[in-house]
Amino acid sequence: MASPGSGFWSFGSEDGSGDPENPGTARAWCQVAQKFTGGIGNKLCALLYGDAEKPAESGGSQTPRAAARKAACACDQKPCSCSKADVNYAFLHATDLLPACDGERPTLAFLQDVMNILLQYVVKSFDRSTKVIDFHYPNELLQEYNWELADQPQNLEEILMHCQTTLKYAIKTGHPRYFNQLSTGLDMVGLAADWLTSTANTNMFTYEIAPVFVLLEYVTLKKMREIIGWPGGSGDGIFSPGGAISNMYAMMIARFKMFPEVKEKGMAAVPRLIAFTSEHSHFSLKKGAAALGIGTDSVILIKCDERGKMIPSDLERRILEAKQKGFVPFLVSATAGTTVYGAFDPLLAVADICKKYKIWMHVDAAWGGGLLMSRKHKWKLNGVERANSVTWNPHKMMGVPLQCSALLVREEGLMQNCNQMHASYLFQQDKHYDLSYDTGDKALQCGRHVDVFKLWLMWRAKGTTGFEAHVDKCLELAEYLYNIIKNREGYEMVFDGKPQHTNVCFWYIPPSLRTLEDNEERMSRLSKVAPVIKARMMEYGTTMVSYQPLGDKVNFFRMVISNPAATHQDIDFLIEEIERLGQDL
């Protein structure tokens, strides 16, 4: 197995340019470390690049493990330019790292080796000559490596190898030709923020243990509410573990608003509740209903038009039907950016209906909320300011690293009243600071990850105008794809008209199917085309794009773009690759 002085330092670098044994590289690392870490940077240089004691001679009293941990630097230069002392990970384990005695040097060396692995992976993620995926079937990966957990520890050399192996088979979601999911791309500032929050390793439930992060959540949620259009950014909100949980929060709060007694007495104390959402909405609405005891049968799916938008007249008809049966409509969830078509429900019309029947209006803008940052496209969410709650996932269209989802609520205090349990060991009422900043009791979770810092730091780095440019570019690329394929031989659009979001839905028709009549046999054969092309994409590793059926429509490609690294050339490549991989079908 390679030593850290060779294999680990030169991960992904064939010319040795990533090797800190190279004096120029060593100086560069030291300069960066000193600039951004101050005294720690000096220590890093002294410990990693200084004149270190050599391992004990054969027959000496020093054990290999002790020798591997010792370090010294006689260099007075700051930053130092000595050769990096050897750290032999084969003799070191996790117990030799901090907080172990004399653990500083091996800790810094180990973390810098991990960092080098990560940085090389980051660089490769943007290299179009590299694969998006090194695909192996599950049984192949299980047989090729021993993934089982053992009673005895492995040494740090093996741990570093596990890091390399894991990234070798990871999907490069930041690759410019990865179009498979709504969440793509890899933002450098967001990545740095994620590293920082993991280093801080704190919980979001009280100000006393997360003072800056709690304040940043307050500031950021207020700004997001202002952008939605609520006066002065008033209201409430929280960052949750994803859009599905944010939507469930909305359903829970809407139920509490109408029947506060449900908190103590449960569903037996309330009448049959009915929620309404479009037939193209996210499955999380039904999941939330199941989890809250409302039941999936109590989620009524409203018809959509040919573009995937909810039909308001059908919504009103189904509300009246439910009321005639003695049921209680309590929530309408409109969608701003559906998962497949990227459709935006007519929010103003939905808001009028909700007002007329006194029903909570929720907008699931997990995918489409990012368009609020664009002066060119935010009109697609006209009416969102009339919602009672909004789900907005910056980890989708805004490119914030996973996970980053917000639930925004127009009425302040409602979320707290719905969820608080007054745990006295956390939320003491006689603390010496403003208790309104102890936000944990309004969350379902106790342990809550710091998700806000990634968004906040990216916002500071890009500004609102930077997010606007990001959104506008991605929508322009989607329109570019649509304009190329709408009249191109071998392509059929799933619906007419240019895309509302970055979703472009289409069939690729191989030459063998182009002269067939539009009948059941043709549809049956066409349904197999997208899965085969997708499988070939993954096996070649060249690109990834999603497919699915919807309603009576057989499998079609759903292209989505949220990665600002993508270009017109990447869209051209995708088209050529689909044609190359599907010509013989």
UniProtKB/TrEMBL annotation:
Its cofactor is pyridoxal 5'-phosphate. GO terms for biological process: gamma-aminobutyrate shunt; gamma-aminobutyric acid biosynthetic process. GO terms for molecular function: glutamate decarboxylase activity; pyridoxal phosphate binding. Its main location: cytoplasm. It is a peripheral membrane protein; Lipid-anchor. Residues 1-25 are annotated as: Disordered. Its EC number is 4.1.1.15. GO terms for cellular component: axon; cytoplasmic vesicle; cytosol; Golgi membrane; presynaptic membrane. The modification N6-(pyridoxal phosphate)lysine is found at K396. It is found in: Cytoplasm, Cytosol; Cytoplasmic vesicle; Golgi apparatus membrane; Presynaptic cell membrane. Coiled coil: none annotated. InterPro entries: PyrdxlP-dep_de-COase (IPR002129), PyrdxlP-dep_Trfase (IPR015424), PyrdxlP-dep_Trfase_major (IPR015421), Pyridoxal-P_BS (IPR021115). Keywords: Cell membrane, Cell projection, Cytoplasm, Cytoplasmic vesicle, Decarboxylase, Golgi apparatus, Lipoprotein, Lyase, Membrane, Neurotransmitter biosynthesis, Palmitate, Phosphoprotein, Pyridoxal phosphate, Synapse. It comes from the Eukaryota. Pfam families: Pyridoxal_deC. It is an enzyme of class 4 (lyase). Catalyzes the production of GABA. Homodimer. Belongs to the group II decarboxylase family. This is Glutamate decarboxylase 2. It comes from Aotus nancymaae.
